[in-house]
Specification:
single chain, mainly beta, Ribosomal Protein L24e, Chain: T, two-stranded antiparallel sheet, two-stranded antiparallel ribbon, 4 strands, binds zinc ion, Metallothionein, metal ion binding, metal-binding
């Protein structure tokens, strides 16, 4: 059996509850984020589009 080892990390945005794979994450300065809004620190106060996630920066 081959197990695919995808490393999952929590988005580095403090209020974000999303978990992303390292492969699919948006990376900024060694940190992994779930989306551009989180990676940019929510400059427009826009949340990420994920259900159940309340982060807005
Ligand atoms: Zn999120
Ligand atoms: Zn996020
Ligand atoms: Zn966020």
């Amino acid at each position: 059996m081959t197990s695919v080892n995808v490393e999952m990390v929590k988005c580095a945005c403090p209020d974000c509850v999303c978990v992303v794979s390292l492969e699919g994450a948006v990376k900024r300065e060694e940190k992994a984020f779930c989306c551009d809004a989180c990676a940019d620190g929510h400059p427009e106060k826009d949340g990420c589009d994920h259900a159940g996630c309340t982060c807005h920066g």
